Amino acid sequence: MIDFFASLNWAAVLQIIVIDILLGGDNAVVIALACRNLPSSQRLQGVLWGTAGAILLRVILIVFAVALLNIPFLKMAGGLLLLWIGVKLLLPEHDAHGKIEPADRLVAAIKTIIVADLVMSLDNVIAIAGAAEGAAEEHRVFLIVFGLVVSIPLIVWGSQLVLKLLDKFPIIITLGAALLGWIAGGLIVTDPGVKHWPVLAGENVHYIGSVLGAVGVVLVGLVMKSRMQRRRPGEKTSAE
Question: Where is it localised (predicted)?
Answer without folding.
Answer: Membrane
